[in-house]
Amino acid sequence: AAGVIQSPRHLIKEKRETATLKCYPIPRHDTVYWYQQGPGQDPQFLISFYEKMQSDKGSIPDRFSAQQFSDYHSELNMSSLELGDSALYFCASNMGRVETQYFGPGTRLLVL
Amino acid sequence: QKEVEQNSGPLSVPEGAIASLNCTYSDRGSQSFFWYRQYSGKSPELIMSIYSNGDKEDGRFTAQLNKASQYVSLLIRDSQPSDSATYLCAVKTSRGSTLGRLYFGRGTQLTVWP
């Protein structure tokens, strides 16, 4: 079965640089969620999109922005990167916001 | 107070034993509850979902939900070394503005030794 696809899988950036993370949901899934998981931490919700509109916003810094495109893929744009942004970033998808969320493999971001 | 609290562990059981993982949540109106398994550096993998009071069994896994006590548990029977991972309890709250997002507990690290 098709799963959530995330790219890149690993990313190394310098402080103050920008990064773009991409997420391709499971086919026919219309809702995308972004989570951030720091070392030894539980995943923290950042933002979600339903039918290409932002549906919920969590603890996402103002330096980050995201959107969902017409093909339902989503991109998380991160600017002015800080050391504390180093984490695993997961994308999850489901259908209609009420079903189980399925997680992608994650993007490991390291900010030096 | 975190939305979701888990017994911190770590939990260590011998192969073949029953592992019991517990979770409490604060939003009484929550309707959807999930257990995810996460290996180090990997993404959370859904183990069980439960929506109604009582038990739900799937193979060696049994999820238990008690909404009155705001308590969710996961039992793993006949534990195997491959079950060694961090188990995350996740809750989807009922609040309209946050409908859909998952709140996670800090996870319980389970080790099953041969």
What would your notes on this structure say?
The complex is a heterodimer of chains A (112) and B (114). The mean pLDDT of chain A is 93. Chain A is mainly β. In chain A, the strands form 2 sheets. In chain A, strands 2, 4, 5, 6, 9, 10 and 11 form a 7-stranded mixed sheet that branches. A 4-stranded antiparallel sheet of chain A has the order 1-3-8-7, with no helix packed on it. In chain B, strands 2, 4, 5, 9, 10 and 11 form a 6-stranded mixed sheet that branches. In chain B, strands 1-3-8-7-6 form a 5-stranded antiparallel sheet, with no helix packed on it. In chain B, a hairpin with a 2-residue loop joins strand 6 and strand 7. Chain B contains no helices and 11 strands. The model of chain B has no long low-confidence stretch (mean pLDDT 92). In chain B, 0% of the residues lie in helices and 54% in strands. Chains A and B meet through strand 4, strand 5, strand 9 and strand 10 of A and strand 4, strand 5 and strand 10 of B.
